[in-house]
């Protein structure tokens, strides 16, 4: 695809996966860790020793358009980079649902940054069709460890948040 304003080729999702050396993520989409705070002391958490901060690239594509509901113990700040808009669904422990659209159309209310506190269930979904993609980065503090992430069970989340069962049905694997 060519950007008519600059004449440059717009990269495809496959181009971005290859250029950034991304791999499939367990929650959906593609990722690669890009940073861990090696120069700082490790942080003691209830789950063990963690880096003070880690960061990843995270990409949703037309072939993997959903980041399924999951819970992280650490705070995460998301940074939108390029591509199509990504809708985020956040379910707080009290059942409050917040939806946020990340994208580059800030005049339409899209966000370039999104903070998700630890302990909040989070899912994401690409808003456009099969050729679409959305690329973000995430900074996690204390640093991400798979031991601190829980994938959402459709049954369990529907029991916890029955008012959101339709959304949970759509954005969980089972």
From TrEMBL:
InterPro entries: Cupin_DUF985, RmlC-like_jellyroll, RmlC_Cupin_sf, YML079W-like. Coiled coil: none annotated. Pfam families: Cupin_5. Residues 14-151 form the DUF985 domain. It comes from the Bacteria. PANTHER family: DUF985 DOMAIN-CONTAINING PROTEIN, RMLC-LIKE JELLY ROLL FOLD PROTEIN. This is Cupin. The lineage of its organism: Bacteria, Pseudomonadati, Pseudomonadota, Gammaproteobacteria, Pseudomonadales.
């Amino acid at each position: 695809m060519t950007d008519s304003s600059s004449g440059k080729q717009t990269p495809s999702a496959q181009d971005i996966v290859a250029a950034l050396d991304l791999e499939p993520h367990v929650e959906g989409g593609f990722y690669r860790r890009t940073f861990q705070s090696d120069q700082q002391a490790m942080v003691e958490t209830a789950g063990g020793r963690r880096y003070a901060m880690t960061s990843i690239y995270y990409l949703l594509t037309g072939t993997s358009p959903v980041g399924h509901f999951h819970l992280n113990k650490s705070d995460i700040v998301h940074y939108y980079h390029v591509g199509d808009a990504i809708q985020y669904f956040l379910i707080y422990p009290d059942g409050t649902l917040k939806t946020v659209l990340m994208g580059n159309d800030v005049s339409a209310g899209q966000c370039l940054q999104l903070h998700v506190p630890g302990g909040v269930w989070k899912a994401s979904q690409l808003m456009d069709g099969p050729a679409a993609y959305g690329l973000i980065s995430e900074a996690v503090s204390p640093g991400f460890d798979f031991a601190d992430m829980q994938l959402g069970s459709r049954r369990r989340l529907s029991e916890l948040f029955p008012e959101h069962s339709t959304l949970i049905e759509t954005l969980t694997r089972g």
